[in-house]
Amino acid sequence: MKTRIIIIFLFFSVLWIFLLARGVYIQIIPNQKLAQLQNKQFESSVILQSRRGNIYDVNQKEIALSNQVYSLYADPKNVEFPKKVAKLLAKNLDLNYEFIYNKIKDKKKRFVWIQRFLDKKKYEFVKELDLKGFAFVEEWKRFYPNENLLSQTIGSVGQEGFGLEGVELKYEKQLKGDFTKKKFRRDARGRPLSIDGLLFSETQDGNDIQLTLDTDLQYFLQSELQLHLEKFNAESALGVVLDAKTSAIRAMVSLPTEVNQNGLAKRQRNITDSFEPGSTMKPFVVALGLEEKVIQANSKIFCENGKFKIEDRVIKEADAHHNFNFLSVSEILAYSSNIGSSKIALMLGDEKLRAGLSRFGFGRKTQVDFPGEAKGILQETPWRKHLLANISFGHGISINSLQMANAFASLVNGGILNTPYIVEATKSPEASEFIKLEHPQGVSILSKDTSNKLKLMLTSVTYDGGTGTNARVPGFQVGGKTGTAQKVNPKGKGYLPNAYVSSFIGFIPVHDPKYVIYIVVDNPKKSYYGSQVAAPVFSKVGAYLARKEGFVPSLVTEKNLISEKTLSDKSKLTSVDTRVEKIETSSQPLTLREVLKNHQGKNEIEIQGQGHLVEKVELLEDGPTTKVKIIVK
Amino acid sequence: MNSKNSQKDLKPFFSLIIIFITFFAIAFLQMEERRLGYQVFYLTKEVKKTEQEKRVKEIELAKLNKPSRLMQYAKDRLTLQKPEMDQIIHIAGPVKTYSLKKRIEIEN
Q: What CATH code is carried by the domain that includes residue A63?
């Protein structure tokens, strides 16, 4: 009996020792496999998407912003009453019933998107329904407050948050930030067991970007171009405003902004498309002529009385009535003589002309920080004589408009060819200030002397008799060049009949050029001369820039000193002043706001001076009306 | 002699008390750590929510300030018109434009 008891005792003792040993093995001795199993039970992982950096204009106005929104997905295996749910969701999410039902009916699937980027109203509605098998994912969505104002330049972002076009694509690396995957333990109620508050905030957001573009200028240019597009019933229009000294792009418009019936894609055609520029090429030929000393500023060139035979072709002036005899170099530009520029090109020869135009950046990319740039066409030499002549007035060569504006800037800024750029500065999420990006230094391609001569010659284009009188900006001297090119047939050889590309390129102000403005109107139907179609847009944009930048007027006219209206208003006021009926007085100085509160909407108000405290209020009886003159200090 | 003995008898008792207090302190600190963890979690959620609201407001403000809307407002509500070229008098003095956010920063 005793032996049996001992055996049973030993048996249970061994069993206990074995259990204890197993317990020690599991609990105390480290075991990777067991640790993994444990972590799997308690740990959750979450992918924290970083915020895409914002894009601002030069004045730090918002152009592109990101915000978190919710996307709805379903786990069809857990969805109850799919038909009923699909019907309910279809009605409230503006989706098709079949579309939702087909997605959730297949119980084998474990994840299907129902709708991405829900707005707040829809999100709250679905959240309140608390449907089984449905859940939300937080995602970043891109917002463009200005809608299509800068859409072709900024580009767009795909549903997965990657840049697809424009600046969004070019600066993807800086903007996107880093995606981070975080693991943390959860309690029974699903709350993270962590005291690390940085868990949700330590994601590396993307850098903010500041552009060189000015939203207000962009809007002005776009609205003026749109008006002219409609006025002249044109196919499309382009506009570029460049900083003449640095080639920073201040505005860049390509109309129409939407894909239209002509198949014009929603792209920044100032950079991606090339075309024959026409006479805006002449200043470059003249500049090269002066630089290579084949002509002098005061040279007179015989313009063959309007007909110049080269090989088997005859070169004519753009206007059939023009039959010039001798023209100075300035006059060749002012009257836009094809024969004059052809003769200068012939003096230069094809090698020198090609090398010179290449130095200006034609036939190669400007290296602007924007994807998809067209380099244009500058044919290899040797050129036949008539091709040489054609190129001198902008045919047989193709450019993109940014290339033209940039090359023109070098003509008037002292001969420095810069690399145009669109991004001014970047800011990391931790930084408080934008840090300017370094841009390549400009290359000197023209002597300062030639540049100064060119500025004066181009000014003559806007003088009486010149082709660019419509480009004048009241109060300011401006220079520029008109261009009217026949439109190349995109589907075959030669040119389209009665189709033109009208353009004007100019700079303001003349003595110290700050801006280069290039306007191109494609295939205008009601008129086609650059002087009539494009030059007026230049004038308006130039005037706008002069006001915005506060340029001091260089042309003193009576209007600049004091306008007629102001004169008449002044005399009227003086006469009224003599009939001051009453002066309101108060022991305490009143604020402008208080006085305005008493008189606004009742009487005509005139405010004199600056400040917010009112010095004197004069009530002036002028017939049936009472005028209130508030003098503030 | 007697008091020496009683002190000797109390030593294990004190040791046990110290051990218990230590265990309790560890347990309390762990609970406190957890409580603070939850508090931080809720505060993080609050910060996230506030940041989200701020971003929504920023987008709304940017939409309200877009040039086309301001132009429309000036035309329709304030009955303003674009000036003709001959109505404009150019006087010197730069006019710098800033976003509303920047203006508030400057004014402050």
A: 3.90.1310.10
